[in-house]
Design brief:
360 residues, alpha+beta, 5-stranded mixed beta sheet, 14 helices
Length: 360
Amino acid sequence: MKDSVKLRSGASVTQVNAREAQSKNLLDRSTLRTMHLKSSGLPVAYSQMNDGSIKIWFDAEDITEDDPEIWYDPDARHENLTLPSGSVIGRMALKKAASLGFYPAERISAMHLELFEEPVAFTRKKDKSVLYLYDRQTTVRQPLMCAKCGKDVRFRRKLCKACYEEDLAARRAEGDAHRNAPYGMDRSRVLFFDLELTGFYDHDEILSVSIYNALGEQIMDTLVRPTHTKKWKRTEKIHGITPDMVKDARTIEELTPEIKEIFAGADNIIAYGVSTDYSHIKYIYDTDEERLALKEKIRDAASEFVRYIQEHRPDITHASLTDAMAAFEIEWDGIAHTSIADTIGCMKVWEKLFPNYYIN
């Protein structure tokens, strides 16, 4: 028996002998029941009895009065049983037991839980035989089995190690075919873009726009003057754009015709983490049809990198642009987290992910 066991309730209980438990003023369920009390806290210790059963102990400082209907109900069928350990348990209706989290062993097993404590109550079946009830909170979680074969403990993605490796090989082959396919794209008509913002939410404003094509040519790199926000201290620490730097810049409304013209000539528009950038740039368009047309051109380098690491580098647990650059050993051009450096970084990551994306 382990010296310490973590229960389903989250409590970690340490093994003690009965004499030690009593010296620490701990109380077991049988004593609590006799005194018409119940614990308001989690178990603190356990003891292994001579018959092999487990007795749970509670702190006397976390005790409250038990529900009177448990011990004083004129209509209840009062009956006690003494367990081999010496603990006394009472008869209880199944409906009341369920409300307390007490269930038969078969139901506990169906919950993928393992019995730890001795029975805490009992009921009678129709044939008058005893059905013991156990506290779900003092059970131990069983390791879940593979969702595919059901023969071994789960390793990743709800699969055992063998099934996971088989699934990974299939996903990797499919992903590699997707990434290595020839897409025949014209570099001059594939654009990469990035925005820097006053904050992290949809209502925040654009501070800079950088657009490059896949030839590495700069199409646009400009600061943007926000019309509502005056200060952005939190994001200023990230991208370094200050209010003074943008005071003479054009607004996004003034830049809109130029950006629309640039995007209209693109077959694909790629960003790293498209959801944020798209949620801001879409507002330069007036209609849902125009926004949908833009969205259909957009590709997300971040989601493609996530798919790649899930198939080839499961050791990588984060998927920021910095993580992608490090995974492919790509050096930064300029200062990271500026729109121009992030745009160029995204372009280089995309080419690593899709080596046959372009016709030239």
